[in-house]
Amino acid sequence: MTEFTWLHWLLFTVIILAFVIIMVMVFIYLERRLLARMQARLGPNRTGPFGLLQPVADAVKVLLKEDIIPDEADKLVYWLAPVVAFFPVLLVFAVIPFQNGGLLADLNIGFLFVMAVTSISTIGVFMAGWSSSNKYSLLGAMRNVAALVSYEIPLLLSTVGVIIISGSLSMQQIVAAQDIPFILTQPLGFLLFFIGGCAEINRSPFDLLEADSELVAGHHTEYSGMKFAMFYLVEYAEALALSAIITTVFLSGWRGPLLPPWLWFVLKIVAVFGLMIWTRATFPRVRIDQLMALAWKFLFPLSVINLLITAVEVLLLKDSYSWVLVPINLAIMSILILLWAKLFKLGWGKIEV
Amino acid sequence: MSLNTEQFILNIGPSHPSTHGVFRMKATMDGEVIVELEPVFGYLHRGIEKLAEQRTYTGIIPLTDRLDYLSAMSNNLAHCIAVEKLAGIQVPERAEYLRVILAELQRIASHLIAAGALLNDCGAFMTPILYMLREREKILDLFEMVSGQRLTYSYIRPGGLAQDVPAEFLPALQKVVTDLPHFFDEYDQLLKENEILLARSKGVGILTREMAINTSASGPVLRASGIKWDIRKADPYSIYDRFQFEVPTGKAGDCYDRYWVRMLEMRQSLRIVEQAIQQMPAAGDIQTKVPALIRPPVGEIYSRTEVPKGELGFYIVSDNSIAPYRYHIRGPSLLNLTALRDMIVGWKIADAILIFGSIDICMGEVDR
Amino acid sequence: MKFERYGVGLVKGLLVTFKHLFRHPITTQYPEQRLVPSRRTRGNELVWNNVKCVVCTTCAKTCPQGAINMETEVDPANPGKRIITRFEVDTGYCISCGLCVESCLYNALHMGYAYERAQYRRQDLIQSNDGLLASETRKASAFMHTDMEKDFPEQTLLIDRNKKKAVIKPSGDANIEPAAAPPPESTPAAPAS
Question: Taking the model in full, what pTM does it have?
Fold first, then answer.
């Protein structure tokens, strides 16, 4: 672990801020282009070469917009909400290693820190939904809270397997333990984490929070101008954070041949985000009760079983936890998913009134 | 311990992203669940029925374009058939075939929008509807070729068509007809077995057989409830009795059935178009001699046709003048909405949007 | 609802969107790339031929919107004939239905071929007299004037731009011609009573 100095702190704060802002812009561009191509369109291509400056143009446009506060709004909370939502996302990057030893703080409880911090931004979202005094906003915010409360559990449990194998909560150590990326030895864990993560940050098909066909825009229906931009930023920063966590935990972080570590890191993040864009382009949205059912009836039991199996494996094959287990775990994953597909029942449908 | 909860009223619409126009649902909500629903319409009322009483029978055609603007050709046809019946006008053979081809293409175009927009209501991020719009574009190209417009065609006239189709129409039509089944297959691959769509739409918003009949629903909404009723078969107009096609029906009457019936109907429409191309005479009149100002004899008529959204009927009372004395429109969208409350109550807000989308209304026709 | 198909449906859907990633986009870059509209385009303006016009005012009577305003007077030189003093079309009211063009017995009216006729002011939408004549920018379309169709380029069709699938039948193929057999012997299109 590097020496904690003020210089180090300053340097990494700047790096993280720059990284988040730049990557969010890259993501916005990437998402719009890829979505467009998947939908037989071209996407933004007017501002700058290949439309690369489109996120900048968007940012300028949104900053120049009139800032509207509804009369009925709770002004202070309304103001605070975007800020509360934004900063926890930045905190996540404090423990993500950009390369070997290249991170702000190598906390020995790194992963726990990530889990704890990511849930804070929900408070911001809920503040936004409550203070706008708009029913759509409130419904969206309530959905977000409900989703978060449910998905935290499978999200954490699905990664405990990884933590058992690597024997550490520190993100640095987790990466160091991945001679084989954990996506291969923990395929089920990865799948559950990806689904749970998408649900937690409200990426499609779990984007119930802002379900544009139902709730207009969810919690930020009433927001405009800079404050809306903050929420927009949060949305993509959360996607970036999730991609970074998945990269670190399951895709062996910065490790990779030939290319410099930070580049591997960025490439993997973009690949994970590409997967999210792909699902967004394809799937319809699930309903709130189905979302809950998925968390409690599908992800939760499977993550517990995954944890159990991993624990047994680690116990039996203390030191030789290696390639042998890749096909075994893949087979286990397939069997479990097939089994659960039979047992699993979504939602409860109509309610008699 | 029981929490003290309170019901609240949520205004869905009139300007809401997925009310397909300016429709308002005043929903009483208990959390996410809708316990009472009051549909409110009339925001797009333009008085088409009254306007029609001041216009000549030909001058009404542009008005029918604006009823259900997604299926203007079918509306033109429905109006013209009504006027022809009233005035006893015969239509040349070739024009009949062209009319059928255009009406069935219009049905495909309208169903494409319906199925795509349903998925948008379901939350798919624009992808299905953009694929659908792409295919619809190919059909609109054909319409543009024959009529010069892409949405409000005003192409069909009492007694035939406004003008003959251009020479390049049939080759282009042939290409579209050969191309569309590929697209349907691909689209089915995209969504037919999609678990999320199945979970969202199967068993949701059930319209039972009895209710469908009692609310005089028509079109795909009725057929999805398991009733084999298609005016093209049951009361054939134009030359529909010459074609082989099936009337797809659903079983459960849920949102998925309504979606699936539409998907199947598009294939059947394609069959009709193919047969019509085969049977159509290569040349011939496309317009019988009709006076510029039609003066039907005194009398009244109710003429109904199967437009994409259901049964479109025109009730025309003539007093032997150049304008109808009374012009009533039986719009399928409005009557299909009758059961909306019963279908939605008890479901969540997300389902409400989906159920509403699955009825496939067009506000131009609801409010008229 | 169960995951009856073990997620196969989801994967199938993903494959479809993935395939589209490598297909040609169907959109065009409008101001630079322009599609050729139909020859029969009913652009939002009227092109008037004041030589052929015999001032019968049929177009004005036919217009469902009342967008055509004609003022005529008896020709002082030839009392049997009327001359037009004012022919005014409010394209703001025009719904481009083409009924006026259709009703004109003397082929003196055409729909416009241009489609970029937006104006900043409502008054500018009102076109009258010489402003209605054909010119470089105000080309007449072939709507209801089939004889003019050969002067126009062929319309761009999306179906022809679909490069992914081989063109299934080149135009002129035998199958495209309507069936050579005579039409069915049934009565000529009986509009059911």
Answer: 0.84
